[in-house]
Each structure stands twice: as C-alpha cells, then as structure tokens.
Amino acid sequence: MKNKRSKWLIISGILVLIVLLLSRSNPGILTLLPPIITIALALITQQVVLSLLLGLFTGVLLLFGFNPGISFMRTLDVYVIDSLASKSHAAILIFTTCIAGMISIVSRIGGTRAIAEKLIKSAKTPRSAQIITMLLGCIVFFDDYANILVVGPTMRPLTDKLKISREKLAYYVHTTAGIVAGIAIMTTWIGFEMSLVSDAFYELGHEVNAFAMILKNIPFMFYNIFAIVISFLLAYKMKDFGPMYAAEKRARLTGKVHADDAKISVSDEELEYGGGKVYYAVLPIVTMIAVTFFGIWYAGSMGNPDINPFSFEGFRTAFGDADPMPVLVWAAVSSSFVAGIIGILKEKLSISDIFESWINGAKELFEVCVVLILAWALGSVLSEIGTADFLITSLTTSIPGALIPMMVFILACLISFSTGSSWGTMPIVFPLAIPLAAAYTSDPTQSTLVIATIAATLSGSIFGDQTSPISDSSILSASATGCDLIHHVKTQIPYALVPAAFAVLCYLIVGFTGLTVIVPLILGSVGIYFVVHYFGKSTKEEDLIKIEDKIKVS
C-alpha cells in the first residue's frame, strides 16, 4: 500500500509541477490545480473529505492572491457556509437524512426481513436461491448499506445449505446494492444525484428539473443495467467463468462454501429486527412514492392558471415545471412518520425507541452530508476561477464530442476504483464533465450527449464502488456474507469488467450515431448473453461430477 501511495504521490507531484510550469505561458491552466489536487489526494489518501477540503482551499487561494490566512477564512465563512445557505441544498440534506432514518425504523421493526423470508420459501435449488438473492437485492433498493446488511445475513444460511459459495453470495449482494440504488428513483442516492445535476446546470446558466433529468438519465446508465443483466444470466444459466468458477466448483463438489485460506469476519453489524410483516416495509415506501408523485404534480400545477392539471398535457407540464426539492422533503418525512406509527402500533415500540432508530439511521450519513457540502463549495469555486471555461476552450477543438461520454465513464471508473468511493468520485467529475459535454450542443437540457455524459459519470463512479478492495461496500459485503474480502474482490472483478466493457462500447455508439438508447441496450444485453453462454462453464453439480469422473478415468 505504501509503494502504491508513493507512486501516486510522485505522479501527482509531476502533474502539479507541469501545471505550474505551463502556467507561465498560459495562466488559465492554473484553474486545473484544484481538481488535480482533489483527485490526486483522493488517490493517495483515500480520504474524500480531506481531498475535497484541500482542493477547495487551493481554489480559494487562486481567488485571493495566494494569501493563506484570508483564503483559510474565506473557505469556511464564505464558500462552505454559502453552500449550506441554498434552499435546494438544505432540502437535499434533509431528504437524505430522513430517508436514512426511515430505513432504520423499517429495519428495526422487521419489514425488510419479512420480505426476505417471504422470498426464501421459494428457494429450493442452487439456481432458485441465486435468483431469489438477486430479486431480494432488487426489492431492498432504497439504500445500499441496508441492502447489504439485510440480504447478506438473510440469504447466507440458505446458500450455505445449497452449497453456493460465499464468493458468489457476496457478488450478488454487492451487485444489487449500489448498482440498484444508483438507478432506482426513490433511494438515499437520489438526493445526492439531483444536487449534482442541478448545480452543474445552474453553473451553465440553466434551471432544470433535476428529478426529470435523472429519469432521462437512467436508460443510459449502461454499466448498472448490464451488471444486473449478467447477474441474472449467471444465476439462470448456472454458468460461471474465471475465479468464480473455481469457487463454485469447490462449493458444489466439497461443500466448502469458502476456501481453506479464507479469512472470515462475519458481520456483527446486523440490524436488530422486530417480528416483521411485509407491509411494514411496503407502506412507508408506497407512502414515499405516492407523496413524491402527487406532490410534484401539485407543486407544478399550483399557481399556474394556464394549464389544466387533470389533462395529460397539463399533467406532463406540471410535472416538468415543479421544483422537486421541497416535495422530496414532504415524502421523506411522511414515510418516516408512517414507519414510526407502524412501529408504535404493531411492534409496541416506544416513541423513544422510534426516535433512537431514526437518529441512528440519519447519523450514518453524516460523512455523506459533509461530502455534499464540500462538493457544493468546490463547484462554486471552480465556477468562479473558470475551470470549466478553460477546459471547454482547450478541448473542444481537439476532442470529438462523440468521445466524451466514453472518456468520462473511463475516468470515473479509474477514480472510483482508486479511491473506493462512488460518492466521492461524482462531485469531482461532474463539474468538469457536464460543461465539457454542454459545449457541443446549443441546448444542454435536451441533448442526448449531455444526458449520456451524466449517466457515464454516475455509472462509472459506481463501478469502483463495486470493484475496489478499499470500497466500504466491498468490505461490508464481504463481512455481511462471511466471505474473505480479497476472494470477494478477485472473483467479482471479471464480472464487473464485462458490463463495463460493453458500457464503453455503448457510449461510443450513442456518441457517434445518436441512436436511440434501445439499440445499444439490446446490443449490449445480447453480447453479455453470448459471453456467459460461450465462456461460462456449467456449475450444476451433476455436470461437475461428470467432469471429475472423466478426469479420474483419464
């Protein structure tokens, strides 16, 4: 690890030196220092908060003539505080913490466990158990941590009984965590994603409905979609390749669900569950969706006499014109209230127990809130010093616009893998990628290129969260499923590289042809099917026994 950090330190120092030398002939290149320092420190230290803070401070130094005292004060009393003063930013913070609190209550009263136990009754074979694990992971979509801590411990006894390797269980649990949370529209991620989108467009001089933009962006999140496709194909066809095949072969033939040299640390962070009914989880989630849906319609139609809100056209106009930020707060608080009432009436919890659970869930996202605040502040500074303008001027004459989504996706993959943080990567890449893509279009709010670039940033950031050995979700997935961390990462990376490769291809297709998203999705899905079909080897027990018998005979 020290050698790796030393390498990054040397590379980063060289980059900073090059920027300083080139700034003599082109002062505008100094505007690249804040993002370079932010990215470099993130790679070296794996500390996103520290990296963002020092990147922010570097930008303020540029604004205040390299006066360290004044820059230190302005960093805190102007840019950090101003990022909190925004109404939309405050709404994002409230929404994010409220959703986390609601999820904690639902888990405490056993709602998510009840859903899991309902599905488990259908799992009788290794194939059905793997498919059920994937389905359960998709159902517990509202938070990646909740997903891991519910699906992993719940499915572990069943998959052990059916001789499914811990590596395979960890893969399914990890895949359905951030992958699904990143594309579902009612999760703890949505507020964070919306804030990045709205801020990026605001800096371009456009006010957009961030919720509507996220909806447009989902079909272009090729990596997320293809990762789900390959997971279900592997489960249904009972085929594997690479290190995972060896792990599954071991489990089927010997009953050893983990390798002899595995270092197992079964999570002691499993949530405290109540008796649990399915509707304990369904009602709060339905409440959140209903309040969001009708709240956006109400907010968009209220005070607008020019539309008939009960007509299809009026509904669509109202939905597009609404400010979704306050509506999300209504939804998050309402769903928390419903979850609390269920806990009090059905599980006989006290009001103190409900508030304790809610607070415990909310405080888990404290670091996320700090990252958000610093990311907003850094974006404001980058706008003032003109980083995006410099990049646009420098690159639009040399890089074809069609390559931007693909390049942004690869950049986000590399940064997120190196830092182990998707949420830390997004605010670093967004302020640079979106203005660059917008420079190639007259209306960035309607541009397929811009939407694909947004999706590439989000999707590429999630790649690292799924594959990096220093990712918190990697560590948590291995712990919750009782799998060795290194074995988990080693067996999962090939299954992440396949959808990532097809995502690169699809971003190129979209960029160069402008085809509707349906064509790349079909091509990518068919390509993944052929990879699994022709490169995968059967892990059915009877097929493995036949192979072993042939080897013994020969």
Give a short overview.
This protein is 76% helix and 1% strand.
Set out the fold topology.
Elements: H1 2-22, H2 33-45, H3 48-63, H4 68-85, H5 87-108, H6 111-120, H7 126-139, H8 144-161, H9 166-181, H10 190-203, H11 210-217, H12 222-237, E1 239-240, H13 243-254, H14 278-301, H15 312-321, H16 324-346, H17 351-363, H18 366-385, H19 387-395, H20 404-419, H21 422-438, H22 448-467, H23 472-481, H24 485-513, H25 518-535, E2 537-538, H26 541-553
Antiparallel strand pairs: 1-2
What does this protein look like?
- The protein is mainly alpha-helical.
- Among the domains are: 1-85, no CATH class; 87-205 and 272-363, no CATH class.
- Helix content is 76%, strand content 1%.
- It is built from 26 helices and two strands.
- It has helices spanning 2-22, 33-45, 48-63, 68-85, 87-108, 111-120, 126-139, 144-161, 166-181, 190-203, 210-217, 222-237, 243-254, 278-301, 312-321, 324-346, 351-363, 366-385, 387-395, 404-419, 422-438, 448-467, 472-481, 485-513, 518-535, 541-553; strands at 239-240, 537-538.
- Strands 1-2 form a two-stranded antiparallel ribbon.
- The two termini are 45 Å apart.
- Residues 267-274 have low confidence and may be disordered.
Q: Average the pLDDT over all residues and give the rounded result.
A: 81
- Give the class from helix and strand content and strand pairing: mainly alpha
Helix content: over 70%
Instruction: Specify the biggest β-sheet.
Output: 2 strands, antiparallel
Q: What is the ordering of alpha helices and beta strands? A: HHHHHHHHHHHHEHHHHHHHHHHHHHEH
Report the end-to-end length measured between terminal Cα atoms: 45 Å
